[in-house]
Amino acid sequence: MSAEQLAELSDLFVVAAVLLYVVAMVGFAIELAFGRARPGVAARSAGGALGARKPVAVGAPAGDGAPGRDAVTGLPGDHVDAGGDATAPASGGDVAAAGDDGAPPSRAAVRAGTAALALAWLGWAANLGAIATRGLAVDRWPWGNMYEFVVAICFAAVTAFLVTQLRANVRFLGSFVMVTVALGLGLAVKAFYTTAGPVVPALDSYWIAIHVSAAIVASGLFTIAGVSGVLYLLRGDGLSRLPARADLERVAHRAIVFAFPVWTFAVIAGALWADRAWGRYWGWDPKEVWAFITWVAYAAYLHARVTAGWRGRSATIVQLVAFGCLLFNLIGVNIFFEGLHSYADVD
Amino acid sequence: MSVQELEKPRSPKPAGFGPVGWLRWGWRTLTSMRTALILLFLLALGSVPGSVVPQRGVEPDKVAAIYEQDPALAEWYDRFQLFEVFTSTWFAAVYLLLFTSLIGCIVPRTATYLRELRRKPPAAPKRPSRLPHSATFDGDLTVEQAARRLRRMRFRVATGDGWVSAEKGFLRETGNLFFHVALLGILVAIGAGSLFGYRGNVLVVEDDGFANTVAAYDRFMPGSQVSAESLEPFSFQLADLKVSYQVTGDRKGQVLDYSARLKVNDSPEAPARDYELKVNEPLDVGGTQTYLIGNGYAPVFRVTDGKGQVAFEGPVPCLIEDKATMTSGCVVKAPDAQPEQLGFLLRFLPTSVPLTDGSHVSAFPGELNPEVQLLGAFSGDLGVRSGRPQSVYELAPPEVMKKLNPLLMASDTPKPLAVGQSVDLPGGVGKIEFTGVKEWITLQTAYDPGRLPALVAGGTAVVAIALSLMIRRRRVFVRIEGGKVEVGGLTRTEGSAAGFAEEFADIVKDLSAGEKDVR
Ligand code: HEM
């Protein structure tokens, strides 16, 4: 196939991915809507177990598919962290399954969710196809401009979601992740589209594979955390069809715990590249400034999580501010500032 | 350190304490987690103006532009050191406080950590089965067997009458401490680099050379501890520059590759060696790196004066006016011309093509049909000998320009000259001839003794933070009573229960496996 054909194929794959993600979103949404409402903070609604320093017995070692339930409250244990008592962290399953109030969820709803999951995988494959064909068409790593970068981040976010789903049930996040990546890809196509072509010499280096790939992986994970964080703030403490706050918080924390070292690595790899390309490893170029701000903000989130009075809502806000910095670095800096990183190819 | 230990309520203000009490309170407050958090916020917030306001060290021309356009604003920016945020006093105050807080945090934590390392795991609780993870099975496991098997799984083990307790995951805290220390390391490395390192920029035309001395630089930015003698004494000649461009398609004219052929002498005595300088591949001589950062054209001119003598001959580096086509503006000065000094403004078109209206433009950045247009010629005192610094890209400062005598002003569509062609000035005061084309490169030379230490500290930080975030502290307790074995386990790190269930199940399986370790 010629480079032009491959590039066209890549564009088609992107469109296919958007469509599949949208349909998957609908499926996940049906599952949520016809599932049951969940209490906002599991423990509180179950009678004020929050902060109680009693050891929480869990029926059986959780894992192996069955979500662990708190034997006392009948709810998935997770909140005990909040009490800060190291001797009593209920572990339970990693993430709760849908349908927390005991009644079996409707079969149709579950089926919609399963179908949505299959569609999400298909969308993932199309997204992968788009990246691979683009890479073949341009004969370099396919993340040399903003369009390619955003497509890759969406792919990383879906990958993070689907891989997590393999280990623990996080279907409750499905529709929100899907809508986010569908919008992300849409934005990439509408606003950032760049025809396939070579990149400027400075980008033509193996460092792009190291530095940008790490940034993409971290950004994908941060996106999952961001989606969870927004939902956390949107839903109140009460009953809601939206996922439980404790679940959202846990997903966000895990995602950031994985993403933070990767982001640290991405920043340092960027410094190494800058040392090779520009003659200094750190020069406070706007992109560097915002990478630093983002990094400090996520570090602040990790500290907030262990600071009394900052858990939960405040920590979530910190996390979202950090995510805002990440997005600004991705989009705002490329558009508003001129710097050595201005190769984004957006007009 | 467990989570609660971080959460001692903030120390109450000492009522009526003496200065020592206040000092202690101040230190406690400074090293508290909440203060660290606030300082982190301030650090992030303080960096923002560094990206919004142009920085002197990065874009000095933009800073100058603000001074010109809005002096009052520039004045205010300057008052708050916003043109040099990252070297400002207030920014330094924030990070120095943060790092003081960090040291105040690390030292006691290291002490606690070392003590914990030596301490045995605590005795098993009476009923391990009440822990978050538990299992019970019947078997003839003995305390010694259980201890041995747990040790083999790299647990630290303590035993007692009918119980075993085991603990693992100390690398978490190790990672955390190393991470924070590595942050200090990065700061120190950067500081050392800015004291003992230097950067310089220079423009070199083909066939010209450069020797690494302070005087040779167009712009030299030394750290405060750098002396002129400490520069690595290398030199080189630019033999040739090759730039290739995309020839077809949407990206026509985009640079594909640069490569500059240098003849390098590592020291005055050393023999010359060839080096191909490319983007992303700096020249390294004894730790001093030289980078290729830009390129352009330097057409060669010969100016003959009214007396028929050559008043100027050589390449003139031109300023790029349009990057896409490399249309460049050139200035030729001939202060030696007789009877009057001569000056010329020209435009260089690397690939000149005629348009239908008779004008010429450059259609491509490569040198396919190089031509120059004479835009203006002047005679009179150029002010070159006034002793004031002069720009090579400007014929003369505006006040001098006004006094010059225009000899020739181009029409809107000056006819371009090809290589070898010339223009005679009116009145027989001289002529200018376009004799050839060379190219120039801009180079940056940097010496930073802090780069390797910074790299080591950065690498440490990455590994350490990964350990710190991925590893969980966990404990496993076993109680054996009359053939009944109770196993309980828990993690000691917030939010890290995930995944322990599987590990715990494996541990239980291993413990309950019958004769396994009977030798
Ligand atoms: C340059 C500033 C700092 C940065 C970038 C930074 C970064 C980090 C990061 C990324 C973590 C997460 C690791 C983890 O959760 O295990 C962490 C943990 C921690 N930091 Fe910092 N830190 C800084 C300053 C401080 C200061 C000043 C203190 C003391 C007041 C401090 C105390 C801690 C503690 C106690 C933890 C462990 C939290 C836990 O047990 O999970 N840090 N730090």
Describe the protein's architecture and organization.
The complex is a heterodimer of chains A (347) and B (519). With 347 residues, chain A is mainly α. Chain A has 2 domains: 239 residues, no CATH class; 63 residues, no CATH class. Chain A is built from 9 helices and no strands. The longest helix of chain A has 33 residues. Chain A starts with a helix and ends in an 11-residue tail after the last helix. The C terminus of chain A is likely disordered. Chain B has 519 residues and is an alpha+beta fold. Chain B folds into 4 domains: 91 residues, no CATH class; 90 residues, TATA-Binding Protein; 117 residues, no CATH class; 143 residues, no CATH class. In chain B, 30% of the residues lie in helices and 32% in strands. Chain B is built from 10 helices and 24 strands. In chain B, helix 3 crosses helix 4 and helix 7 runs antiparallel to helix 9. Chain B is elongated. Chain B starts with 18 loop residues before the first helix and ends in a 7-residue tail after the last helix. The N terminus of chain B is likely disordered. At the A-B interface, helix 7 and helix 8 of A face helix 2, strand 1, strand 8, strand 11 and strand 22 of B. Protoporphyrin IX containing FE (HEM) sits at the interface of chains B and A. Protoporphyrin IX containing FE sits at the interface of chains B and A.
